[in-house]
Specification:
With about 270 residues, this protein is an all-alpha fold. The protein contains eleven helices and no strands. This is Glycerophosphoryl diester phosphodiesterase membrane domain-containing protein.
Length: about 270
C-alpha cells in the first residue's frame, strides 16, 4: 500500500474544516472562553494587594480551575466527535455525545501528562536550577537536550492515544495502539504535528512575554485574549490534522497487523496439527 503524503493530509483537513467550520469554531470558542475566564481570575488573584477579597478570588480561581478541567475536556471530546463524524453534527449534539467518554479522556490525558514529567524535570533543571545544583553549563545543556528529545519522542509516539480513547471506548491499550500507528512514520507525524504550532508560536511568545514580565493585570488579561484568538481558529485544524493522519495510518498499518495475526494463527494451527 502506498504511504500517505503530508500534503494530502493537509488538503483533506482544510476541506473538512471548510465544511464544518461553524460547528468546530463554536466548540473551540466555548473552550477558549472557559480557559480565558479561569486565566483572568488567576491573574486578578495574583496581582491584587493582600486582603480578604484576594483570598476569596484565589479560592474562586482554584474552584474554577478544577471545574473547568471537566468542561474543557468534554468540549475537546466534542471537537473530536464533530470532526470525525460524517454527518452534519451540531455543537450541542457533539457535546451531548461527548459525555460518556469525557472521564475516560481525562484519565488518559493525565497519564499522557505524567509521561512527560521526567523529561520536563530534566529541561527545568538544565535551564533554571544550574546554580542550585552547581551543574556545569555543558551538563545543563545536555540535560536540556535529552529532556527535549525525550519529550518530542513521547508527544509524537503517543500523539493518537487520547484520540483512540475517544473513538474506541472499549480499547484499553490506547498508548500501544498509538505507538503501533506511528512506528515507521515518526518524522511524518512529527512534521504534521508542527504545522499548527508554527502558525500560533509568534502570538504565544508575545503573550508569554507579557505574563513573565509581570505586566499589569489588564495587560496580562489582554495577552490571554490575544493568545485565545489563534487557539480558537487553530485547535479545530490541529484536531482534523491528527484525525486524518490517524485514519491514513490505520489504513496503512492495520492490514499489516491483520496479515501478521493471520500468519501467526496459521503457524499455530500447523503446529497443533503436527
Amino acid at each position: 500500500m502506498e504511504k500517505f503524503k503530508i500534503k494530502e493530509v493537509v488538503t483533506v483537513s482544510v476541506a473538512t474544516y471548510k465544511a464544518k467550520w461553524r460547528t468546530l469554531i463554536l466548540i473551540s470558542l466555548l473552550s477558549s472562553v472557559i480557559s480565558v475566564s479561569v486565566d483572568a481570575t488567576g491573574i486578578v488573584a495574583k496581582t491584587m494587594a493582600f486582603s480578604p477579597i484576594k483570598d476569596g478570588v484565589f479560592v474562586a480561581f482554584i474552584v474554577l480551575t478544577i471545574v473547568s478541567i471537566y468542561f474543557t475536556s468534554r468540549l475537546s471530546v466534542a471537537l473530536i466527535i464533530a470532526s470525525k463524524t460524517s454527518d452534519d453534527l451540531g455543537a450541542s449534539a457533539a457535546y451531548g455525545r461527548a459525555k460518556p467518554v469525557t472521564w475516560r479522556y481525562i484519565g488518559f490525558a493525565i497519564l499522557f501528562g505524567l509521561m512527560l514529567i521526567i523529561p520536563m524535570v530534566l529541561v527545568i533543571i538544565g535551564m533554571q536550577f544550574g546554580g542550585l545544583f552547581s551543574i556545569l553549563w555543558s551538563i545543563r545543556g545536555l540535560l536540556v537536550v535529552i529532556g527535549s528529545i525525550y519529550s518530542i519522542y513521547i508527544i509524537t509516539v503517543f500523539r493518537f492515544s487520547v484520540f483512540a480513547a475517544v473513538l474506541y471506548p472499549h480499547e484499553s491499550r490506547v498508548f500501544a495502539y498509538s505507538k503501533n500507528l506511528v512506528k515507521g512514520n515518526f518524522m511524518k507525524v512529527f512534521f504534521i504535528m508542527l504545522i499548527p504550532l508554527i502558525v500560533t508560536l509568534p502570538i504565544l511568545a508575545i503573550s508569554l512575554i507579557f505574563k513573565v514580565n509581570q505586566a499589569s493585570a489588564l495587560i496580562q488579561i489582554g495577552a490571554s485574549l490575544l493568545e485565545a484568538i489563534p487557539t480558537v481558529l487553530i485547535a479545530p485544524f490541529s484536531t482534523l490534522l491528527a484525525l486524518e493522519t490517524m485514519k491514513r495510518l490505520e489504513d496503512e498499518v492495520m492490514p499489516k497487523v491483520l496479515s501478521e495475526s493471520e500468519s501467526e494463527s496459521e503457524h499455530k494451527s500447523q503446529v497443533d496439527d503436527y
